[in-house]
Specification:
The structure holds 2 protein chains of 2 kinds. By secondary structure, chain A is an alpha/beta fold. Chain A has helices at 9-32, 79-92, 145-152, 192-202, 222-228, 255-258, 264-282, 298-317; strands at 55-62, 68-70, 76-78, 97-104, 109-110, 114-115, 119-125, 128-135, 163-169, 209-215, 232-237, 287-293, 324-328, 344-349, 366-370. In chain A, 41% of the residues are buried. Classes of the chains: A alpha/beta, B mainly alpha.
Chain lengths: 386, 140
């Protein structure tokens, strides 16, 4: 069969068919970017089919960076994916909890042009996945605006009487400046006060989380703990290095048993101890895990706030890394105050090698000091405090 | 020939561009695997020493490039200093107690872990890091 121009109809149909298939494939691809799972009826509220929950966990996994490390067997680990797997496991193994997981992923484009959604959200209740959705995380000034909005979609989240826990996995959060924290949004800043503001969004009406776990490097500084203390009663963080997936999350499974007595500080101590045990087994570098009682550390924080902030300002004015280095606040005489140990439980083991291997204690607080270039590579381990 | 070299360089850069940060870690991780694979302590020391020297040479080479920004030069200097300390500790120089034969496997893990953690404070840009990796590959 031929048309008036002598071409076969089949020939004419081919481009049409090709375009239709391409369009269908393109549409399919775009829709496949979304993995919306329809809300189950129980997602509408606890009183309408869903069982009651005794704890509520919000988990932010910042996976927008190069988060790879090698385990002792030489296997490369993608840390944010591992953290996500752990968070899902916690969610599935908590029959009396609701768990909100936000995975912030690198921004990618389809065909180098069309941006793809760069956040993925999971909502679990009573161990069941209730909703799973992709979202845009790069909109608006607030870093957690999309996450807070997703959180509010679920009405069955009355916090009264529940143990509330916030988990943050990511790189070290800058104490000031915060440029280029997000690899996909280098023009946006993210610093400790942004995290604090985000916490406020998740817990309106000045309520505080019972427990905040900061799975980042150098979370245990006076500035960071001071900024987060208004939003959490107990904080677990590391004053030293800590990969974002390094904490042991087994303690968070079966919270109905682990937190049956409602004693969150005691639970935090067990969590820290277990993480410390695992880390000291696997790592040759120094390990430090601290539990901060957000109210009891206030005296110390108030005493050192001016000094610490002045140091931060000085570091920002000059160059953070060229002229400064981290150190235990206890190595700086001005910070050694009677209140220094109040409200802090520290689990510490020095590195098995290197200059700090002789250091036996850590105050639980990490500070900055000017770098002494003369110390590099020229003195004994005994004469160089870290 | 020239076009093949250019093509090879482009392919190499594309391969390396994505996980540039991880490549340096991988280099030390591979060295740690070799250390653990051999029973001979002298060989373990040679493997570790050669890995330090290769990376140090690459750092020197890259640092000599005129276009390297000042910030990266500072980062490279610091990284070289940490490598020098590890070499000293391995050999027992400059006040360090020599790493014992029994501890060499653990020391190789320490090198990997410390390099991974050092990335948080060493602000070497991705492009410079990429150059370092390429030079290491060319030198070894």
């Amino acid at each position: 069969m031929q048309d008036s121009h002598g071409r076969s109809v089949g020939d004419a149909a081919h481009p049409m068919l090709f375009m239709s298939i391409s369009f269908a494939a393109f549409t399919l691809l775009l829709t496949s970017c979304s993995v919306d799972i329809p809300l189950r009826p129980e997602a509408q509220g606890e009183g309408e089919g869903g069982q009651a929950t005794s704890s509520s966990i919000v988990c932010i996994i910042h996976g927008d960076g190069d988060y790879r490390y090698h385990d002792a067997d030489g296997n490369e680990v993608t840390a944010d994916e591992e953290a996500l797997a752990k968070a899902k496991r916690v969610a599935e193994r908590n029959p009396q909890a609701e768990v909100f997981i936000f995975h912030q992923k690198p921004r990618r484009h389809f065909l180098f042009i069309f941006p793809r959604r760069d956040g993925e959200f999971y909502y679990y209740r009573n161990g069941q996945l209730i909703a799973n959705d992709l979202y845009w995380r790069g909109q608006g000034q607030s870093h957690f605006a999309p996450e807070v909005e997703l959180r509010r979609r679920f009405p069955g989240t009355n916090q009264s009487g529940k143990a509330t826990i916030f988990l943050y996995f990511g790189h070290e959060i800058p104490e000031s400046d915060g440029v280029r924290y997000d690899a996909s949004y280098p023009e946006r800043t993210f610093a400790v006060h942004d995290l604090a503001r985000g916490l406020g969004g998740f817990m309106p009406d000045s309520a505080r989380f019972d427990l905040l776990v900061l799975s980042t490097c150098f979370g245990g500084t006076p500035h960071t703990i001071g900024a987060l203390a208004p939003f959490a009663r107990t904080i677990i963080a590391s004053p030293g290095n800590l990969h974002l997936s390094y904490f042991d999350f087994h303690s968070l499974e079966r919270l109905d048993l682990g937190l049956a007595d409602g004693d969150v500080p005691a639970f935090a101590g067990r969590f820290a101890q277990r993480s410390f045990d695992r880390l000291t087994r696997d790592l040759q570098t120094d390990v430090s895990v601290a539990v901060y009682d957000a109210d009891r550390v206030q005296k110390f924080l108030l005493s050192v706030q001016y000094m610490y902030d002045r140091t931060l300002t000085s570091l920002t004015t000059h160059s953070y890394t060229a002229e400064s280095e981290r150190c235990d606040c206890a190595d700086l005489p001005a910070f050694v105050l009677p209140t220094m140990t109040e409200g802090v439980d520290i689990f510490y083991r020095p590195a098995r090698f290197g200059r700090s291997k002789g250091k036996q204690n850590h105050s639980g607080w990490e500070c900055w000091r000017e770098r002494d270039e003369r110390s590099a590579g020229s003195q004994s381990t005994e004469t160089i405090p870290r | 020939m020239k076009s093949r070299t250019v093509f090879g360089s482009i392919v190499m850069m594309l391969v390396l561009a994505l996980p540039a940060n991880g490549q340096l870690q991988k280099y030390f991780s591979d060295a740690a695997k070799k250390v653990k694979a051999t029973e001979n302590a002298s060989e373990k020391r040679i493997i570790l020493n050669e890995s330090f020297q290769a990376v140090s040479k690459a750092l020197d080479k890259v640092q000599s490039f005129a276009l390297i920004p000042e910030n990266d030069r500072v980062g490279i200097d610091r990284f070289k200093a940490t490598l020098r300390e590890k070499q000293d500790e391995l050999a027992g120089l400059n006040g360090f107690a020599r790493v014992s034969d029994e501890q060499l496997n653990a020391f190789s893990d320490y090198v990997v872990q410390d390099t991974e953690q050092a990335e948080a404070v060493i602000t070497i840009s991705l492009v410079t890091l990429l150059l370092i990796i390429i030079v290491i590959l060319l030198l070894t």
